[in-house]
Design brief:
Shape: globular
Largest sheet: 5 strands, parallel
Number of strands: 5
Order of helices and strands: EHEEHEHEH
Distance between the termini: 26 Å
Structural class: alpha/beta
Strand order of the largest sheet: 2-1-4-3-5
Radius of gyration: 14 Å
């Protein structure tokens, strides 16, 4: 299953970009990173069937184990692409939230966009290690 992270704004050279790159290299699952301008831009056509996850402060909080189990179910059910979308500064529209398969929050706090991207990549890596029985999660 392709893990496709779609984010508004450029990460450029930053400590957060280094973290994103570190987890991208560690992931054994296929991963694609798409950056879009703050407004507009074209999201690549999906690989169907797909699931769409919006990172949203009003979303559901999940433990790492719950998140891994969800990704494992999607993978086992034949989902070809899981899209994780980080919105612009104003978040996602009501329509985008209504169409998403999951609204995911990293707790009740609002996180800086670049840090949220790095946190997402770490959680994707952690989920893959949980599913593989790798000791990273227990360290």
């Amino acid at each position: 299953m392709l893990l496709h992270v779609i984010a508004r704004g450029k990460i450029a050279r930053s400590p957060e970009a280094e973290l994103v790159a570190r987890y991208e290299k560690r992931l054994t699952w296929p991963v694609k990173l798409t950056e879009l301008p703050e407004t507009g831009g074209k999201i690549p056509d999906p690989q169907a069937p797909l699931k769409t996850v919006l990172l949203d402060e009003r979303g559901k909080t999940m433990s790492s184990e719950e998140f891994a189990a969800l990704l494992g179910r999607w993978r086992d059910d034949g989902i070809r692409e899981a899209r994780f979308v980080l919105g612009a500064a104003d978040g996602h529209s009501r329509e985008e939230r209504a169409e998403a398969d999951l609204l995911l929050a990293f707790g009740p706090a609002t996180w800086p966009h670049l840090l949220a991207r790095a946190m997402l990549m770490e959680q994707l890596y952690r989920a893959s290690t949980i599913l593989a029985g790798h000791p990273y999660h227990r360290s």
